[in-house]
Amino acid sequence: MRRLRGYAPCRSFTTKLKRRLAVAAIAATTLSMALSSTALAAQNCKLMLHGINVAGAEFGQPGDPYGQGYIYPSKETIDSLAQDKFNAIRLPFLWERLQPTLNGVFDATELSRMQTTIAAARDNDMIVILDPHNYARYRGQVIGSPDVPVEAFADFWKRLSAVFANDDDIIFGLMNEPHDIEAPEWLTAANAAIAAIRNIGAGNLIFVPGTAWTGAHSWEQTFYGPSNASVMTGVVDPVNNFAFEVHQYSDADFSGKANDCSHIDGAVDAIKNFTDWLNANNYQGFLGEFGTTDQINCLRGLKQMVDIIQNDQKAWVGWAYWASGEWWPKDAPMIIHPDLRNGGSAQLRTLQPILADDGTPRNVCEGG
């Protein structure tokens, strides 16, 4: 039977990452209590995710055949990344493939593919972050529009959370990189999804992005209207078991699309500034995507970004590098390939000193 439980985004490890997060059981009535992040943190232990995005299931268009337009990660890929000591994977997928009709049932075959990948991760004691990689859209229409009402987004999360409710190794990432939607409208959608998750009885940790591609560098900017920094403090979670997800790249426009790291110093500064915002507002964060090329100054900046997170585990629950997966071209500049390290070897070597601790805690349980 599944256990009803609540945990802050933190846990301690011994010699390896356990399959399930060790959490304290909470009564069902706790779902209606607004516990503070501080209170939850004091009750639990530290968790630091050392993750990697494993791309493939979000590739192509919704109608593409499986194995031609898109693919889920193979067991061999998951095994390889576990051997590298990554303790979590962020699993991108397309909303439309899992739920072909808004408010409709899930496609059983697609759900089975997702569950097979999750089983491979569980075999390696890895946590899975579910990531609908849709940019706050469904078939190209933005959430909150007449074609994709907020209620449909909530329905999606009601159904998905029912499948994985209180599975301690499953984290819910609400949405990848919302954009061209103002922060107040996105907050409404995010809160509706959180309410649907909690109403189903799921206490899983939730990662909540902002709009403007949820960039750490854009968190306090107002070119989309009110800033994430001013609006997203309105997140409502009855069990306060969430963290804010940001992404941060180092090329000229911070998109991660260019083969350069011309703004690596700006990327490091963005992580510093977002850390300050988290601490000032008593929140926690997760760096869901980041990556860089293999020039020495880029790798130095990569390590600086990770060190900021590792050294402030009050503010951060971890990070997930972008990316890995079988279908990337071998010359993709940021990709850590799982096969014989044909790519990403310098980036992997940069991360290895942190990965090598195999989940050993940097912090002990608070108050104990």
Automatic annotation (TrEMBL):
Q: Name one Pfam family in it.
A: Cellulase
Q: Does the keyword Hydrolase apply?
A: yes
According to its UniProt record, the EC number is 3.2.1.4
Q: Which residues form the Glycoside hydrolase family domain?
A: 60-324
Keyword set includes Signal: yes
Signal peptide start and end residues: 1-41
Q: What keywords are annotated for this sequence in UniProt?
A: Glycosidase, Hydrolase, Signal
Q: Which GO terms describe its molecular function?
A: cellulase activity
* Superkingdom classification of source: Bacteria
The UniProt entry's GO biological process terms, in alphabetical order, are: glucan catabolic process
PANTHER family from the UniProt entry? ENDO-BETA-1,4-GLUCANASE A (PTHR34142), GLYCOSIDE HYDROLASE FAMILY 5 DOMAIN-CONTAINING PROTEIN (PTHR34142:SF1)
Q: Which family does it belong to?
A: Belongs to the glycosyl hydrolase 5 (cellulase A) family.
Name this protein carries in UniProt = Endoglucanase
Report the source organism.
Answer: Martelella radicis
Q: What does UniProt list as this organism's lineage?
A: Bacteria, Pseudomonadati, Pseudomonadota, Alphaproteobacteria, Hyphomicrobiales
